[in-house]
Amino acid sequence: MDGILFPYVDPTSRATDLPFPLDNTPLSSVPNDTLASLLYKAPALHDFGQTTVVRLSQTLVLKGGGNILPPEAAALRLVASSSSSQPDGTIRAPRVHRAFQIPDDTKYFGTMGYLVMDYIPGRPLDTCWASLPRHQQTDIARQVAAMVLAMQRVQLPAGALGPIGNGHANGNGNINRNSNDNDNSNINSNSNDNDNEGRNWPSRGRFFTHYSAGPFGNPDVPAFRFTELVLVHQDISPRNLVLDGAGQVWLVDWADAGAYPRGFETAALRAQASFPDFHALVLERLERDFLVERQLGAIEYGWLTAALA
């Protein structure tokens, strides 16, 4: 680690003229346990907290950790499958070549997750943003805003609600309200707590009443009312963007992606503490839902802090 708040990066991990463990080795010939062992042997592109990304070859990386879960791979595969409707490649993201889990009782979720993905050559945007000329910063913000809009046009899979692969909504992203089997009326924050896990996402009325946080604790902030879900990334920041040699940015780290109301993307952008000029440039190019941003801000304490008390 370079410091408490900074990831460790092996300086050889972005080399173009050095060998890597799986150079000239077909991925199909490498078993999962061998891949898992490389998480601690290959040069680290990123090592911070529970997440490590290492360089496997000139074209592949391995991401692993206790918080690497199946929905991240599902979101990336959804983006890849929608590429045929994006001839200009608006959403630039790494492709997933393999994803697997290995049980591990020492981890919070009881598993270690692994993703083999494309290596994206280029510069992490957080390392060069401040030195870029203003016209290039503006162009990058335009690209990012275009990616956000393209994500919102992606056809969601049936049942997408929250992390991809979970939830109860139809494939068009509209919340089902007329089906007994897929009743999502509880997506609103005044729902009851007695139904199946996940059906009353994103907030539990009793939770916020108990902690006096959010819409039920603040009469000036109305309850959530959501009628549409779209694909959102929820962690767009220079630390999750790679600037390639052609001046295009690639969006990485899809761990928080899923099917959520479109206002969640701008709320997440607004909440980012670092690189305020970057986020301001992107936000001014997007339609904002200030009510949703206010609602999410109102429940922030209960959602992130009181829940862990």
**Which CATH-level-2 architecture of the largest domain?**
Alpha-Beta Complex
Task: Tell me the domain tally.
Answer: 2
- Alpha-carbon distance between the termini? 29 Å
The counted number of beta strands is 10
Task: Tell me the major beta sheet.
Answer: 5 strands, antiparallel
Report the CATH topology name of the largest domain: Aminoglycoside 3'-phosphotransferase, Chain: A, domain 2
H/I helix tally: 9
Helix/strand/pairing category:
alpha+beta
Strand order of the largest sheet: 1-2-3-5-4
Q: Based on CA inertia axes, which overall geometry fits?
A: globular
Q: Write down the Rg.
A: 20 Å
- Unreliable residue runs: 167-215
Beta-strand percentage?
5-15%
> In which range does the helix fraction lie?
25-40%
Query: For the residues shown, what is the average pLDDT?
Result: 82
CATH uppermost class of the largest domain: Alpha Beta
Summarize the structure.
Helix content is 26%, strand content 15%.
Structure commentary:
The chain is of the alpha+beta class. It has two domains: 93 residues, 2-Layer Sandwich (Phosphorylase Kinase, domain 1); 190 residues, Aminoglycoside 3'-phosphotransferase, Chain: A, domain 2 (Alpha-Beta Complex), CATH 3.90.1200. The protein contains nine helices and ten strands. The two termini are 29 Å apart. About 16% of the residues have low confidence. It comes from Aspergillus indologenus CBS 114.80. InterPro entries: AGP_Transferase, Aminoglycoside_PTrfase, Kinase-like_dom_sf. Keywords: Transferase. This is Phosphotransferase family protein. GO terms for molecular function: transferase activity.
